[in-house]
Structure formats: C-alpha cells, structure tokens
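ARCHIVE CARD
Drawer: 12
Card no.: 0347
Subject: one protein chain, sequence and derived structure
Cross-reference: see card 0346
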Amino acid sequence: MLLFDSTIWLIGIVLLLIVLLILRRMYHKSLTELLLTGLFGIYLLNVIKYTFFPFPVDSQLLELMRITGGDKGMVRLNLIPFHSQFYDSILVDKSNYLNVLMTIPYGLLLPLLISMTTRRMLLFAVGIGLVIETLQGMIDLLLGFTYRTVDVNDIIFNFTGAMLGWAMLRLLLRSSIGQKQLARWFPAVVQKM
C-alpha cells in the first residue's frame, strides 16, 4: 500500500514551495497572498490524503484484493441523490458530515485567493466534488475493481461544505469587525474582494 507518509508530504511541500517561489518571483505576490496560497496548498494536500490514500500498488496485494474483496467494475457507484447504499438514511452516514467539513475550508480560502462571483463560486463548489469523485472512479477502473465508492451524495455534500465556507466568509466580510480584522491582516486580499 502506498501511504500518505512523510515522503509524500515532503514531495507535496517541495512542490508547494516551488509554486510559492514562482508566484513571488514572476507574479510579485505579496507575503500575505503567499501565506494564503501556502495554507490552501496544505489544505489541498490533506484533501488528497483523505480522499485517495492509502493506495494499493503492490501487484500481489492488488491480485489478492481482486480475488477476495474487490468487486469487479464500478459496483459501489451511487448515482441516486440522497440515497445511501449502506445505511437506511443518509443522515446516519457520518461520511456525509465529514464531506461537508472537509470542504468548508475550500469555500473560505479559495475566494481569498481569486476573485469570486456567486456564479463562479457555485461552479468551483460543484467542481471540487466532481473532480474528487471522477478521480476515484478512474482509480477504480484503473485497478480493475472497486476500491473507492463513487457517490453523487459526496458531490452534494462537498458542494454544501464549500458553499457554507463561502457564506461564512461573506458574513464575516459584512460585519464591521470582520472587515477591519481582514483589512488589518490581509489588506491585499480585502482590496480584491
């Protein structure tokens, strides 16, 4: 199994530092923008860690999983919204709540990095869930058996979390205390909004 261990973290951090260096040298980003970009990069590394790892790579393990426990094809595929394959109700499945929590930082941080209209945020919020579920489905097809469940509910709950994060940021920006604090700590970002 390929784990998201210190080696993967190191590779991710090195790539993030290269991106930050490019942003600083070529695009003359402020230190505040670099700090937010770095925070967003670490957040994305965590999303990758929890949505794609551990990843089976050993050929003997893959064959064993195919024979003993892996369903052939895309058996764990749910395209019915608000239907659970494993529980009587989607409200019982804690992974739905974790999907919301996982994407709240996405909705909070992304608008601080790029200018965001409501329509654009809606597209990005749907996009995060679609990208994750599509990649999980492609991994299943690549492996030849179901390793991760592809579920439309994950897209819905990822969307909900991203939009909650965005709504929280908008509420913060509408309050005078929030505006003052953001202007104090992140003046370059507040000017973009």
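Annotation on reverse: DSSP finds eight helices and two strands in the chain. Residues 91 and 97 are 9 Å apart (CA to CA).
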